Sequence to fold (515 residues):
Amino acid sequence: MASANISPIKFHAPVPGTLPAPERELRRRFLEEAEVVPGGDRISQCLQCGTCTGSCPVSYAMDISPRMVIALFRAGQIEEILRSRTIWICASCYMCTTRCPQSIKITDLLYALKRTAIDAGLYPERFPVYLLSKIFARLVARYGRNQEMLLLLFYYLRRNPLGLLRLMPLGLAMLRKGRIAILPKKIKGAAAIHKIVQASKELELPREKGAVPYAEDMVGYRAVG
Amino acid sequence: MEYIYYPGCSLESAGKPYDESLRAVFRALDIGLRGLEDWNCCGATMYMSVDEALSMAISARNLALAEQAGFRDLIAPCSACYTVLLKTNRFLRESPELRAKVDHLLGQVGLKYGLSVNVRHPLDVLVNDVGIEAIAAAAKRSLEGVDFAPYYGCQIVRPERGFDDREFPTTMDTLFQRLGARAAYFPLKTRCCGGMLMTTFPDVCLQLVKDLLECAVENGAQCIITTCPLCQVNLEAYQKRVNKRFGKSYQIPVMYFTQMLGVALGCSEKELGLQRNLIPWKAPTSVLAA
Fold:
C-alpha cells in the first residue's frame, strides 16, 4: 500500500490506490506544511457541504472552489490545486474557517498549499502574490518594518511598470496628505531580525526545487487581471 | 491603567491619521499609552504564506519585548497586526513543535517569550475596559446628525471568537449610537474588502470594494467608519477607480473609528488627522453647534 508511507502524520483521508510519483511527493510536502497548523488534520473531517464556497467573498473569481480543493486533495490531485488560481486569490478573511461545521481551518490550509506551491515552483513567472510577498519579506528582513512605498515601487517595477504611472496621481495625493513615508526607517533591532531570518534557514532541510513548466492561460489568470 | 502600544507599519504611512487620532482619543480619556520600543513588522498575512515558523518568530519578538517591558495588554490597532499577533499567541500555545522552533529562533537574539501578553484591539479596550458610559460622560459633542456605516472588516472579528460576534459585531454600532449617531443598515459590516488583492488582483478587489460602497450609500450612510488601515485605503483611495470602472459617482468619506470618537471627545481636526483624509468629512451643523 502506497498510502502507508506517503503520510508523515496520521491523516485519514482516503488515498486512492497508487499515486504517480510527482503527486506523491507533492502530497508529502503539503502534509508536512499542514502539520504545522494546529488541528490541520481536521481536513479529513470534511463533509463536502460547501459552506466554505458559499461564504467566500472571492469564490466568484476562483477556478476551483474551496470545497473542491478538499475534494481534489482526497482524490489525490494536489497538483491540480497547486496550479489553480484559487490558493492565491484567497484574501484571508477567514469566513470559511468561521463557518465550517467541521472546524476545518481552511484559510490556514490554503496558506499551507501556498507554501507547497512556492516550494515546488508551481506558479507563473513574476507571479503577483509570490512577488509581493517576496519583496515584503526582503524589506522586513532588511529594515525590520514594512516600507509601503518601496514595496509598491519594487512590485510595480517588476510586475507592471505601466501600473506605476496609473498609480501616480493617487501616490501624489497621499504624499500631499502626509500619508507616505518617503525615507525608509530602520529599527535598532534590524540586526536581530536578520539573525532570526538566517537561523530559520538552518532549521529547514535543504530541498531541491522541482521546477515545473507553467501555462499561464491554463487557468485564466488574464481573465481576472 | 496603562497599555503598551504597537502601532504597526501601516500606521506610520498611509494609516497615519489612525495613529494620530488613536493617541488623541487616549489622551482625551486620560488612559496611559506607552509606545513599544523598537517594534518590528508583525509579519502580516503574506509573510505567513512564506514560512510559518519564521513569521511566528518575527511577530513573537514584539510580544517578547512587551513582556520584557512588564505589560500584560498590548494594543494593536491594525487588523492584520491584531490577527497575526493573536494567531502567534494561539499557535504557540497549541503547537509544542512550533513553540520549540520559535523559542530557538528568539534565543538566537537573547529573547524569550513566556506567552503572558494579551493582544487587544483598541475598540475592545475602549468599550470593554473604559466603558461606553465613561466615554459618554467624557464626550464634549453629540454626534447627532451623523449617519454612518459601521464597517468592521474581517480580521478583528475572525477567525477565533474574540471581543465581539464573528459575523455580526455590534460594538461600534452601540458605541456611536450612544454618542448620538445613527448606524445605517449595513449588512456587509464584516465582508472582506479584498485587502492586498488591490495590488495583486485589482479586478477582483474592485468588485468587492464596489459592493461595500454601494451597500453603504444605498442605505443612506453619510460616511463609513472603519477599524482597519487597509480597509480605509481600499475604500477611500480607490473610490475614483471604482467610479470609473462601474460608472458610479461615489464620494463618501471613510473615517477611522478613532477619528469619529475624537470628534465626540472634542479633539481638534488636526489632532485627529482629519485633514489627511482624501475625501473630507464635513461635520453636520448639529455636531459643530454643540
